[in-house]
Amino acid sequence: MSSQNIPLMANNILKYLEINFNGCTSGNEKIDDFIQERQLIIINYDDIVLEWIPYDQFNEIKETGKNGLITVYLAIWKDGPLYKQDSLSNYTRDSNKKVALKCLHNSQESIDSLINEAKKYPIKHKAFQALYDNKDDLN
Fold this sequence. Notes:
Layout: H1 13-21, H2 29-40, E1 58-66, E2 70-77, E3 82-83, E4 92-93, E5 97-104, H3 108-119, E6 129-132
Parallel strand pairs: 5-6
Antiparallel strand pairs: 1-2, 2-5, 3-4
Protein name: Protein kinase domain-containing protein
């Protein structure tokens, strides 16, 4: 990932995300705004750091289900999510994390649905989701 512009330390997660967000966006204003909104409410060490993940960060992508608007895949996220062991430690990544990918089929309605689904989870929820909106990249 291109998110190595500044060192990631315990006290600079918001600055780190602000600097690195510009280079790694979904291309969808609603999704990008939602991600930034969630990043700005990170306060505690155990808060989940929501990020947009580039497609090349996923391995072993397998389709697990689909409906008219969304196809769900299981994949391995190479770098993995940012986390802290405790309030005194620095952030690190949990490499090779299994994740569910939800591929949107060019529908604003499905984007709104996924954002509303993600909003149901508190910032401390341990479920990781990566939203991806270009099915062509998964085939």
